[in-house]
Amino acid sequence: MKLRVLMQVSVSLLIASAVWAQPPQGGRRGDQGGPRDPQQMLEQRVERISGMLGLSDDQKSKATSILGGAARAAQPLREQMREARNSLQAAVRANDAAQIDKISSTIGTLTAQTIAIESKAEAQFIATLTPEQVSKLPEGFGLLGGPGPGGPGGRGPRQQ
User: What is the DSSP string of 36-82?
Assistant: First the structure.
């Protein structure tokens, strides 16, 4: 019973944070107009990681391939998530508790699938690093913009 309650609370918190972390309709946070280019964002992410860890050209190439593959694999899930969040907003406005529960569960599943894709890619990338480079990774570091320094709302890597 306690495990079930804990799971429900955890999923609820995960869903709430995902819903509240979304940018306002019509644009992204910090957008200076126009859509962001995914390839450019990937290249910038790899350059940031490279600057922090001192990646070789081969490691940069592998990082681009691994992270790009994860982004492409997660894209359909992100689109489904966007649709689910819109449906959730409609269910909330309609005060439809059954739909809120159903859609919240869907969002939780999509979030878990996305986290799995991103975490596997991160593990794959970390496997390409030297022990010295691994030691430079800050605690809770998220390569794919997830939680931790450098992720949404994060401070970026700590300077020592």
Answer: PPHHHHHHHHHHHHHHHHT--HHHHHHHHHHHHHHHHHHHHHHHHHH
